[in-house]
Design a protein that fits this description.
With 396 residues, the protein is an alpha/beta fold. Helices cover 46% and strands 14% of the residues. A seven-stranded parallel beta sheet has the order 4-3-2-1-5-6-7, sandwiched between helices. Strand 2, helix 2 (39-49) and strand 3 form a beta-alpha-beta unit. The structure holds magnesium ion (MG). Magnesium ion (MG) is lined by residues 153-155, 224.
Length: 396
């Protein structure tokens, strides 16, 4: 029986994780559960898995969760209720858990994930911001602890699988596939007038709002390039992006002899989640097989770098190193939030990020505090740029 702590249970990855674990009742026990702001959903999950400890976004959500559970006759003594970052850390560091599935979106997942890694737990990582912000620290710590980070992100999970086909010194390049998002065929000049609803309409994957907007700007792919560079120790020049709208090939690895290994599968996150939770074994999945005879025609296209400047900005941050990726990530979170609130236009997301990066002098990273400081600085700068964009749009 594998004992698991789940961070970010109410998000889309968290829900898929519970789907995977519930199909193997003798394979997994969830000792700790950490959700966000959806009290009703979190209460139902707690009822379902009966964890030792459950954390929620803040004390008010936690109170709501507890009152819902009391109404439903839940044995309250079964679970300890905590909240906030401290609560998430208690969940991730639960003494019995050997695996932590980290799926809290954005920078909020960094500290609880890092603390669990310090305790020598296996990390199944779905929160890409953790590696984007603190890749150097995370990788150093995982080497020190002799623990491997298992990627849940479908592309990195695919690469992790393909890399089992050769030695690291035989790898020539990584090829990350991208769906291209909802604006793949939208002309560049039309992008300034696209709406939040259009940006949220992703063609192949159903995900949270932040990552869906990141997919529309290709920043998601940019963050994944940075994530891949850290996870697999590959130089930026040896990581390519290919637009593959059907999302059937989840990524590829080219080896020195010219062989390319690709991983294919259903567009269902339960597959990479199950791989990460059962690695190095493979368990029988209850999902149907991919119907190879009914596949659409598979296309592979070059990404349009001038139409999607966020991708280039991510490569720039990766090459600059140090605090630059954390700054890119923080500026992006603020800009995406402002776009979702209708404060800035779609094309201004990349402009805000670029302005913040232009104003930043990257420094090397030695601890979590340095990263969090760069993160806070970038958020402040990004908010200033968002407000000035919003006021100039309003003619103020
Ligand atoms: Mg992905």
């Amino acid at each position: 029986m594998k004992v698991l702590s789940l961070l970010g249970s109410t998000g889309s990855i968290g829900q898929s994780t519970l789907k995977v674990t519930s199909s193997f009742p003798d394979g997994f026990r969830i000792a700790g559960l950490s959700g966000g702001r959806n009290a009703r959903q979190l209460a139902s999950q707690i009822e379902q898995v009966r964890p030792d400890i459950a954390s929620s976004g803040d004390e008010f959500i936690s109170a709501e969760v507890q009152s819902l559970l009391r109404q439903r006759g839940y044995p309250m003594a079964r679970t300890r209720f905590v909240h906030g970052v401290e609560g998430h850390i208690e969940v991730s560091c639960h003494p019995e858990s050997t695996i932590v599935l980290s799926a809290i979106a954005g920078s909020a997942g960094l500290i609880p994930t890092y603390r669990a890694l310090e305790q020598g737990k296996t990390i199944a990582l779905a929160n890409k911001e953790t590696l984007v912000m603190a890749g150097e620290l995370m990788m150093r710590k995982s080497r020190e602890k002799g623990m491997e980070l298992l990627p849940v992100d479908s592309e990195h999970n695919a690469i992790h699988q393909c890399l089992r086909g050769g030695r690291r010194d035989e790898v020539k390049r990584l090829i990350l596939t991208a769906s291209g998002g909802p604006f793949r065929e939208t002309p560049k000049e039309k992008l300034s007038s696209v709406t939040v609803e259009q940006a949220l309409n992703h063609p192949t994957w159903r995900m949270g709002r932040k990552i869906t907007i990141d997919s529309a700007t290709l920043m998601n792919k940019g963050l994944e390039v940075i994530e891949a560079a850290w996870l697999f120790g590959v130089e930026p020049d040896n990581i390519d992006v290919v637009v593959h709208p059907q999302s059937i090939v989840h990524s590829m690895v080219e080896f020195a002899d010219g062989s390319i290994l690709a991983q294919m599968g259903l567009t269902d996150m339960c597959i990479p989640i199950q791989y990460a939770l059962t690695y190095p074994d493979r368990w029988h999945s209850p999902l149907p097989s991919l119907d190879i005879y009914r596949l659409p025609r598979l296309e592979f296209l070059e990404p349009e770098m001038d139409k999607f400047p966020c991708l280039g900005l991510a490569y720039r941050a990766l090459r600059a190193g140090g605090t630059a990726p954390a700054v890119l990530n923080a500026a992006n979170e603020v800009a995406v939030e402002a776009f979702l609130e209708n404060e800035i236009a779609y094309h201004e997301i990349s402009q805000v990020i670029e302005s913040v990066m232009d104003a930043h002098v990257p420094t090397s990273v030695s601890d979590l505090e340095g990263i969090l400081k760069a993160d806070a600085w970038a958020r402040g700068e990004a908010r200033i740029f968002c407000h000035s964009a919003a006021s100039s749009a309003a003619g103020i």
